[in-house]
Amino acid sequence: MFLSETSIEVLSDLIANRLAIMSIGDQDDLREKMALKRALIELQNNGQIPLQSSSEFRDIPRRGRRRKIAASGTL
Question: Which of 17, 57, 60 is nearest to 38 (CA)?
Fold first, then answer.
């Protein structure tokens, strides 16, 4: 997908403004904030996520219970 430089600047500004006013109240807000950060990085890098920033998003809390692993090591 191709976006003009003007569109990228406008979208980046909108995302940055949303991040600036956002307050974290629960896990859903945290997920939204991380998704907005990821989108901003992608816009700034023309759709590519740099390797060093992808590790930042690995620690995003997930919904639901953690998966239980059997004591024997098999699933």
Answer: 57
Per-residue model confidence as pLDDT tens digits over 13-39:
999 999 999 998 888 999 999 999 999
Report yes or no on 65 lying in a domain: no
Distances (CA, A) of 3 to 15, 35, 44, 63: 16, 19, 12, 32
What are the residues whose beta carbons fall under 8 Å from the beta carbon of 24, sequence distance 6 or more? 30, 33
Contact present, 5 and 36 (Cβ < 8 Å): no
Within 8 A by CB and 6+ apart from 34, the residues are 57, 60
Give the total number of structural domains in the chain. Answer: 1
